[in-house]
Amino acid sequence: MLELAVGTGRVALPLIARGIGVAGVDASAEMVARLRAKPGGESLPVTIGDMAEVPVSGPFTLVYLVFNTLFGLLSQARQAECFRNVARVLSPGGAFVIECFVPDLARFDRGQQVRALRVTEDSVTLNMALHDVAEQRITSQIVTLGGQGIGLRPVAMRYSWPAELDLIAGQAGLRLAERHGGWQRTPFESTSGWHVSVYRRVTP
Fold this sequence. Notes:
about 200 residues; 2 domains; alpha/beta; about 40% strand; 4 helices; 7-stranded mixed β-sheet; Rossmann fold; N-terminal domain of TfIIb; globular; single chain
């Protein structure tokens, strides 16, 4: 199987420890260096590259992309490119599994949000976000104010609705096989805040 955006291996390494073969793709050599420093990390094959391009040949029976990372591709075209390239490396009947949040636009007031994440006696951490409805893009800063000064952690994402992802998948030759409200296979409903979706390569 193949993990896109494998990062430091927090999903791949436990799978390898259970005897499951995993390869990875990640754009950050620094993240992969941290993976290599962990037990089992040296034996995990990782290709440095753009996850939308899926720079491996396959075939794989399973490709997965978790933790909302798909939304780090900041346009619909880039997300569609990822689906197309996943379909290219999947074996017939193979599966593409993604984990994504369901957008909750009620969190924003006039396109803005300020939320306290952590408050202590000597520091406060805030999430400040702007929402672009037309682009379906959220740009935010996680700001920490404290005795050590000001810390900034920028985050940008382009969300997609579940039905939009289904359309993108269909255009790539994949079809929705399952959708759950989480990893415990809870039903996906109109109130679900998350979804785990399984797409399978359409066989002729």
